[in-house]
Specification:
The complex is a heterodimer. Chain A is an alpha/beta fold. Helices cover 42% and strands 15% of the residues of chain A. The longest helix of chain A is centred in the C-terminal third of the chain and has 16 residues. The chains are: A alpha/beta, B mainly alpha.
Chain lengths: 299, 135
């Protein structure tokens, strides 16, 4: 059984997951170095699938490498680049390599990336992909053809509580849960009230659905401005940007903002942990985990 | 035979009528498996990602589309319209149902004919709602 599933289903402990850095250089040594840095703190890490519509070492290849170096992967599969055949092949490949955690996403559009001229696929959407993973768990492909041994996927999905239509985001989360998702990693967001309404709404309808809000570590107000201006679905209010921009020590102000976000999220119903994305690549990740009461190698 | 021949002649006519009506009103993409009734009479195939099961996470703060910022998100519009329009309750109840993947073979065919012949009800043998698959 995956440690992630075990922790969420058989304990009440908090669960921290992390976005594994994309691999474009450095070879296996880069994977090994990141595993060494992250595995003391995180029960599992997302092996991303061409994140933000940029090509990188593939989701499954990085997941296998992570696993070999001793960090449990969450294999992310997005619907933008692969049709239903290729998506099922990713799943069957994960099953072959004993990878149990999978996360299904609709995905950013090709226009978010550095090859906006590419064909977008979206043969499946996020909820359909979740359902397809459940179908594979029952021992067949979508066509009905057998897949043996049947996978034992711990299925997760994502949702964005921070954008329109706010009421409907809860229903969409439930739709994914009914299709088989047992955990939702949430989009990065800077509106705690929206997160709170979402968590309460989801928890009332699906108390077993584990929510992991995302927190991103940045060094200054610049990335906040970037997300606000360039990443559809992420709105960073002007006062939040100003708080960091006007601080004497922007790096410290940005850190304190992330720490506050974690502490707030962890008070909400249904929230079982935090998903961390680190754009600082310094020792702040370790500081954050320590400030949240974690100790290394004590997952 | 005469009926079959008449039917064959009728097909292109129906296609033309369906497309002629649905294209200007709903931006119909002729997917051949129409779900307009359950999506607040807003065509999900006009979503640049052709999403059939609700909005993606890229909806902008003003409710507009990630891919086409000048356009309101198709699913935001659908969510508003399903309550505004006087549609039968059963159609509204279908709003959040899990719609199966599109059958690409039906693109360019008449959804009216596919409805009558039940061709649009075809699903891959393995497709079922999860609750059913767990029985």
């Amino acid at each position: 059984m995956s440690a992630l599933r075990e922790r969420l289903q058989n304990s009440k402990d908090l669960v921290f997951t992390v976005e594994f850095p994309v691999i474009d250089g450095g070879g296996m040594a880069a994977v090994e170095k990141n595993v060494a840095r992250l595995s003391p703190w995180f029960v599992a890490a997302n092996s991303t699938d061409n994140t933000a519509a940029h090509a990188h070492a593939s989701n499954l290849s990085v997941a296998i490498a992570m696993k070999n170096f001793g960090l449990e992967p969450i294999l992310q599969i997005v619907c933008r680049d692969k049709n239903r055949i290729a998506i099922q092949a990713d799943m069957a490949g994960a099953n072959l390599h004993g990878i149990e955690n999978i996360a299904l996403l609709t995905g950013d559009d090709v226009t978010a990336g550095d090859e906006p001229e590419a064909r977008r696929v979206f043969d499946l959407d996020g909820p359909q992909a979740v359902n397809v993973a459940s179908i594979l768990n029952s021992g067949t492909y979508l066509s009905g053809r057998k897949l043996q041994p049947a996978p034992n996927f711990f299925i997760s999905a994502v949702e964005n509580p921070f954008t329109h239509p706010f009421d409907y985001r809860v229903q969409r989360a439930i739709k994914k849960h009914e299709a088989g998702a047992q955990m939702l990693q949430l989009q990065i967001g800077y509106h705690p009230d929206r997160l709170e309404n979402f968590a309460r709404g989801v928890h009332a309808l699906a108390p077993d659905l584990a929510l992991l809000p995302s927190v991103v570590l940045v060094k200054s107000s610049k990335p906040l401005n970037f997300m606000n201006d360039k990443v559809p679905g992420i709105d960073v209010p002007a006062d939040v940007i100003a708080r960091v921009a006007s601080a004497e020590d922007q790096s410290e102000a940005a850190y304190q903002l992330a720490l506050e976000q974690c502490k707030h999220a962890l008070t909400l119903p249904g929230v079982r942990g935090i998903h961390v994305t680190d754009f600082r690549h310094d020792d702040t990740l370790e500081r954050l985990m320590t400030d949240l009461g974690r100790t290394p190698h004590n997952l | 035979m005469a009926l079959e021949s008449a039917g064959r002649k009728l097909l292109p006519l129906l296609l033309t009528v369906e497309h002629g009506l649905k294209k200007p009103v709903w931006g119909c993409q002729m997917c051949g498996q129409c779900v307009l009734h359950s999506t607040g009479m807003v065509c999900p195939m006009t979503c640049p990602k052709t999403l059939r099961n609700g909005p993606c996470g890229g909806v902008r703060e003003d409710g507009h589309c990630e891919v086409k910022p000048e356009m309101q998100c198709v699913w935001v519009k659908a969510y508003e319209r399903k309550d505004k329009l006087h549609l039968p309750q059963i159609w509204k109840d279908h709003y959040n149902e899990l719609r199966p993947p599109v059958d690409m073979r039906l693109k360019g065919t008449s959804s009216w004919i596919n409805l009558i012949t039940k061709r649009d009800a075809w699903l891959p043998a393995g497709w079922r709602a999860r609750k059913e698959s767990q029985k």
